[in-house]
Amino acid sequence: MKQPNEEVRGWASSKTFRCGPYWHALAAVRWQFFGHLTFKRESDSEPRRVARFGAMLRPVAYRWHAHFPRLLWCLRQEHGDLGGLVHFHFLLAGLPPRAVTSRTCRDLERLWLRKGGGSAVVTLYDPALRGVAYMLKVSAQGSRSRAGRESAKFGPEDCELMLSDGLRRFLGLRR
User: Fold this and answer.
1) Residue 58 has pLDDT above 70, yes or no
2) 52 in Cβ contact with 116 (< 8 Å)
3) Closest Cα partner for 117 from 32, 57, 29?
4) 88, 75 in Cβ contact below 8 A?
5) Is the distance from CB of 57 to CB of 66 less than 8 angstroms?
């Protein structure tokens, strides 16, 4: 994923990173939510799609009195197998523990639709479901499984993630 341009306020400092070196660091984060987001308009530019993601997160951060720049999020854009439609996968942390509810999942889904996104599925993060591995397209399973096929198709060396400034600070990465 390319870095958004300067016209997307507040996002220009977010950089993309190769996945491989960050596997262990990302797996150590206590993620709260995992999500899959689609788009109504495939013609939207990447900066506009990323801005829409931020527009979804800001009201939730405000509601739960979380400082938006300190939210930890990891975003991956990919093209689907069927039709090559662009979609996002994301991990989110940094909200207070009382915010980690299925109601917040539904709020994020509604906000995505309200901000002009397509469908949204947001769930509470379950480490047993290996959401970080899915985001990074890394699988310990064989290539016969769906996760294994995804891993073989992309692999960690082909994976680019957009990390929030808060996550980069948390991981000790420089600007």
Assistant:
1) yes
2) yes
3) 57
4) yes
5) no
Cβ neighbour number for residue 37 with a 10 Å cutoff: 25
Q: How far is CA 127 from CA 27, 66, 93, in A?
A: 9, 23, 13
For residue 10, what are its two tokens?
């507040």
C-alpha span between 101 and 95 (Å, rounded) = 11
Please report which confidence band the pLDDT of residue 20 belongs to, taking 50, 70 and 90 as the band edges.
Answer: low
Q: Which of residues 123 and 79 earns the better pLDDT score?
A: 123
Q: What are the distances in angstroms from CA 129 to CA 33, 45, 51, 65, 124?
A: 12, 31, 28, 29, 11
Rounded to two decimals, the pTM is: 0.77
Q: How far apart are CA 76 and CA 88, in angstroms?
A: 6
Mean per-residue pLDDT for 23-47?
A: 88
State yes or no: pLDDT of 22 exceeds 90: no
Query: The tokens 């709020």 sit on which residue?
Result: 107
Tokens matching residue 47 = 């900066």
Query: For residue 19, what pLDDT is reported?
Result: 55
